[in-house]
Specification:
single chain; 5-stranded antiparallel beta sheet; about 50% strand; mainly beta; globular; 5-stranded mixed beta sheet
């Protein structure tokens, strides 16, 4: 499953998609060496796809000697060297996306190495803010990063959510356009480390529109359960989503909202709502742009907002009794 971006960067080789769950930077100005900086509450490890999120800065001020570990690093925010070093193995890759950057204090001690080769040096490169990438095929600093070629990226998951349905767990996800996608494996764990595949779903393969999937995991009794989705292309390459968890104790109803680039709005109910639920999309002037009623809502429902002018809106969900939810969204 891939998405072709013709305006940015580079062609990535096949090994990029052989990765463990995505680990995202969470804290702004977080230090690479601190587990609290990362979404999985651990340091990046062998096989991870490491994402430095837009608007976030991750600082390296020590020697991160990971030259025996494969990492795929995607930089949408800032990777900042402060008299630090990052060394990763020969099969690793680093991509700087539009809006992302690698910065330094200008010290020659600040180096980023792939397979022992300098791809970035603080004293030579200073700051890299151009969409570009580095791997074992690119040169040595100051030519360690290449730019200006087309990049082939895995498609983004629009949403991935879990919901209780009596004693079952409803697993739902949606994708953007799919190209050469083969199948999805739904994977479950009771400790967050040991995974088993519990379902195998055929993918849409080739579609230019969003597509939704679901699977129901029956009779779940564990106090907490972990889920992830492994998506596999027809050529065997794959990506794995971030991990989602669901608890069977102290269950609190929760509503989440995601808006896709196609102006479809995904409203997710973590618990089943018995009464009819009215979901409305409202403009900032108070005009009801879209309205839909759902009976015994649970899990993910879709509210279409096609032909809607880009801008800020309010999404509301009410059942005429105790349920009152509203959130501001950007379309």
């Amino acid at each position: 499953m891939k998405k072709l971006y013709t305006t940015a960067l580079v062609f990535f080789t096949a090994h990029f998609t052989f990765a463990n769950p995505v680990i995202n930077s969470m804290a702004n100005n977080g230090n690479w060496k601190n587990a609290s900086t990362w979404s999985l509450d651990r340091l990046p490890m062998n096989g991870d796809t490491v994402v430095i999120s837009a608007g976030k800065t991750v600082i390296i001020d020590d020697i991160e000697n990971l030259d025996n570990q494969f990492l795929y690093i995607k930089i949408y925010g800032t990777l900042k060297f402060s008299n630090g070093k990052l060394w990763i193995n020969n099969n690793s890759s680093i991509a700087i996306f539009n809006g992302g950057s690698i910065t330094s204090t200008g010290s020659p001690s600040e180096t980023l190495k792939i397979g022992g080769i300098d791809k970035f040096s603080g004293s030579i490169d200073g700051t890299l803010s151009t969409a570009s990438f580095a791997n074992k095929t690119t040169g040595t600093s100051p030519l360690g990063f290449n730019s200006g070629i087309t990049i082939l990226l895995p498609v983004k998951f629009i949403s991935f959510n879990l919901a209780h349905q009596n004693n079952d767990v409803l697993i739902q996800w949606a994708t953007a356009e799919e190209i050469s996608s083969s199948y999805f494996d739904v994977q479950r764990s009771e400790n967050g480390k040991d995974w088993s595949t519990i379902a195998h779903l055929t993918a849409a393969s080739n579609t230019l529109s969003s597509h939704s999937y679901s699977y129901t995991d029956k009779d779940i009794t564990s106090k907490i359960v972990y889920y992830r989705i492994c998506q596999v292309d027809i050529d065997g390459r794959f990506t794995i989503t971030a991990v989602r968890t669901i608890k069977n104790e102290n269950r609190d109803a929760e509503i989440k909202v995601n808006a896709s680039s196609s102006n479809s709005i995904y409203v997710h109910f973590s618990e089943q709502v018995k009464e009819n639920v009215v979901v409305r999309l409202i403009s900032t002037t108070g005009q009801i742009v879209s309205q839909k009623t759902f009976d015994e809502s649970v899990g993910q429902v879709v509210v279409a907002a096609q032909n809607t002018i880009k801008g800020i809106y309010i999404i509301t969900a009410t059942d005429g009794q105790n349920l009152k939810f509203s959130k501001q969204i950007l379309l």
